[in-house]
Amino acid sequence: MRDFTLKTYKALLQSLEKGGYEFLTFEQYCAIRQKLSGRKTLPEQYVILRHDVDKRPWFSVKMAELEAQMGVKTSYYFRIVKNSNNPECIKRIAQLGHEIGYHYEDMSLCKGNHEKAYEHFKESLAYFRQFYPVRTCCMHGAPMSQYDSRELWDKYDYIDLQIIGEPYYDADFNEVLYLTDTGRCWDGYSYSLRDKVPEQQKRWKKNGWSFHRTQEIIKAAKERRLPPAMMLTTHPQRWTDNRRAWLKELILQNIKNIAKGMLNYYWQ
User: Fold this and answer.
1) Is the dihedral of CA 121, 123, 127, 130 positive or negative?
2) Can you list the positions of beta strands (E) in the chain?
3) Domains plus CATH for the chain?
4) I need a labelling partner for 25 at 20 to 30 A (CA). Which of 100, 102, 179, 191 fits?
5) In this structure, what DSSP letter does residue 136 have?
6) What pLDDT, in 10s, does the model give residues 161-198?
7) Residue 90: which region, alpha, beta or left (left: phi > 0; alpha: psi -120 to 50)?
8) Nearest CA to 181 among 257, 107, 242?
């Protein structure tokens, strides 16, 4: 089975479901933890499913439709820029019952100016709230930028904007295993500048929770070797059954990994 196809993604969800995991949006996770939900406690086994829509938003629609057919609700984070921000796609995904969040990069877009970035964040948040009552946001890594947009919260507080969660601040990674397909693999830490949890990586690897291919996660789920709480982050532009688009993404990602690896070395 080829990796990074919708067929493989479906097999991943099925293996987790059979393994006894309940699927949560990030909004649901935050609401339960902060006692903002009627549900008092988190499930014994759960997976927070998060999708960062960096580009090709129609690929996200295909993934969202598959999830809806399976009865699974997930979180989709859209950027404000043209490559991601497609109103038709956002509406469709919201109609399917999924969470919509803001994939912010305001410090990068405003070249490190906190005041301008905060105003830009508020304007963008208001825009996305036309489609969904957005309650969570998630930083876009912006590997080509020297600015980390999380620095916006050194001066401001997203709670003031009725945001209840940001994964890099509000997910308890002492309890939640974080797996992301950054770099078009599940162990691409060296390719990622910001989408990672470096303080936990060694512990997870020691526990055998480091995977390269999706099939390895599926196998671990079937063998009950996964921890009880996880967050899985995908970039839907990578997941397609279209062979031409799949090959194009493979080639482009290999080139990007080289560049990101060099940037990672430079910034460190």
Assistant:
1) positive
2) 22-24, 46-53, 75-78, 99-104, 137-139, 177-180, 229-234
3) 6-34+44-267 (3.20.20)
4) 191
5) B
6) 999 999 999 999 999 999 999 889 999 876 666 777 87
7) alpha
8) 257
